[in-house]
Amino acid sequence: MRKNNGENTIEEYENIIEKLPAAFAQHKVIYDSAGKAFDYIFVKVNKKFEEMTGLKKEDILNKKVTKVLKGIKNSKFKWIEFYGDIAMTGKEKIFEKYSEPLKRWYEVTVYSHKKGYFTTIFYDITEKKQQKEKLNYVLRFSKIGFWEYDIISKSLSWSEECENIFGLEAGEFEGEFGDFLKRVAPEDRAYVQKINSPITEMKQGIPLEYEHRIIKKNGEKRWVRESANLNDENKILGLVIDITEQKTIEKELKISREKLEHLISETTAVIYSYQIIGDNYKILYLNENVKNVIGFKAERFIGNQDFHLSCIHPEDREILKAKIKKMREIDYSIDEYRFRDKNGNYRRLYDQQKVSRRENGVITVVGSWWDITEERQEQNKEINALLFKDNLSGLHNRKFFKKTMADFDLKDNLPSSIIIADINGLKIVNDSYGFEKGDQLLKETAAILANFIRDKDVLARWGGDEFIILVPGSTKEQALNIIKSLKARFAASKKVNIPISISFGVATAEKESADFSDLLQAAEKMMDQNKLLENSSAKSKIVENILSTLGAKSYESKEHALRMSSLAHKLGKRVGLSNYDLNRLSLLARLHDIGKTTISEAILTKPGRLTESEWKIMQEHPRKGFEIASAIEEFSVIAEEILSHHEHWDGNGYPRALKGEEIPFLARIISIIDAYDVITNDRPYTKAQPPEKALAEIKRCAGSQFDPQLARDFLLMMEEN
């Protein structure tokens, strides 16, 4: 039976997961006996996952990764072992990795929400990686000059590209530091000499980077950027690159930046930048919109780490610290946290940030804050609504009912009653017709209850096949009248073509001191007592319905059962069965093929030979019949015989390949009677044969299919008749 107590809301989050801008996937790891991961299964993925990987849900869900990505075990990176460790230890990791089976680069966040399981959230960064490779290629062939200055000998040597930058011929540079200074534009010479003094004075470990103008041999002024450092051999090593075009662009950018700053000031987001230096961070810039969002002016935050931290909710400060730590390793991050505004209220901010520069151990980050407080409040309302709803029936769930009772003002609603309802025979319906029919029965029951109750009554699915109703202001007598009316409605319902039988229990609170758990216990006790009286009858009606359904969709008609009962009774008397066993035999004749109700009409009435798969389905009907009969006390006495009525004397029958006297005696009788009736009456696959041919077939199969002694007794009985 499909259980649903309403507290599992995983399906309800699917809409939220589907809208994530990142790929989302949950997996279950498969470990060997030594605890080593050797495979994992796709449990859930979202639409973005399909888009990024090209894998479709219907092709991968509940399948092993080794079947989906056949090359994964040959990958240089041991994906399965890596994820197996995450799922076992609960670690969280963020990394970039190339997937050889998918031939893509991904930025991955992986964590374990439950031991043995892991979740990945990732972005496709293939294009970014490709762009970076192209950039590296360009840099290798860029025109960057190299020079070396020996502090001891005062000699300066230039690469050929250095001379090109300064407009000199190869070997034309004189080779002294002073000669180099002559090539620096007069207005920058003092600055260049000063900036180089730390390392010329042999203070190691002080890298330099500076920009200045030079005068080429032809008199043209150009901008260059130089970087230099002192090595262990008392030599200053330096690089130089012509940045004249860059300086021109910077001038143009300055104008553009002024325009951009104007636009930024108009946006509804808070735009900011900060630098990470060691373990600290320093806010450099916030646009003026910060005042509109949280009430504080931008200058309160500039360079003031302590004030910024004080505004973050104490429970969320670790998020910020983790964010700062992350940005040392990755270039992009999205976080949410609560931020105190000027009025002391906490706003929920959506924080999106990106590294713009990494230079000399300093990381510069730009980002934006968006106030999503109202949006999250609406989402929480929707989620809370889903938490209190039963997905199958559409009613409130157990959690909602308990909360209602906890908040219920009993004092102003005395007396009040609780009614509990339990569907009789739902397991038989599930076993016989399938879970889809059982679900229809649950939905129809819920609909009848919902259409009957008053607006102020509270109805919920209590669990499995149980429902519960709170009836404020109701005496016990009134509650019993409600139950009487409901029973009439259920008896009249024809919507699911199955008789709906409900057992009810009721308890009434007449004093303010009444306890909900005591009321519930009393109502359940009454319901259980009623179920003992009503359940058997309800199950019998369902079985009658099953037999009618079976007769309507196959050749297992009532007439077939009557003919078999008559012949079985005669044979049973002939072999000396007791009255008790004769009654069991008659019941077996009627119910032996009840398991066929779970088989489709197309198979039952197929005129041609069954396929191998269809035959396997057909061979399951004794087990299904056994399950149905076992669920009903008065039918359970023949459950073993129903399970065994297609076993053969020689052990070649089904479903258990029993042999000889291992087969229950009544099952051996009914197999002969069934064979005779099938041969002598029309079937989809054959026309009726005369009794002589049927008897000859039973004689031929005595000792193989049939008990030889029972076969002889049957043949003699038929000859005498």
TrEMBL record:
Residues 208-255 form the PAC domain. SUPFAM superfamilies: HD-domain/PDEase-like, Nucleotide cyclase, PYP-like sensor domain (PAS domain). Residues 557-679 form the HD domain. Residues 535-721 form the HD-GYP domain. Residues 131-203, 256-331 form the PAS domain. The lineage of its organism: Bacteria, Bacillati, Bacillota, Clostridia, Halanaerobiales. SMART domains: GGDEF, HDc, PAC, PAS. Residues 414-545 form the GGDEF domain. This is PAS domain-containing protein. It holds the Pfam family GGDEF. It comes from Halanaerobium polyolivorans.
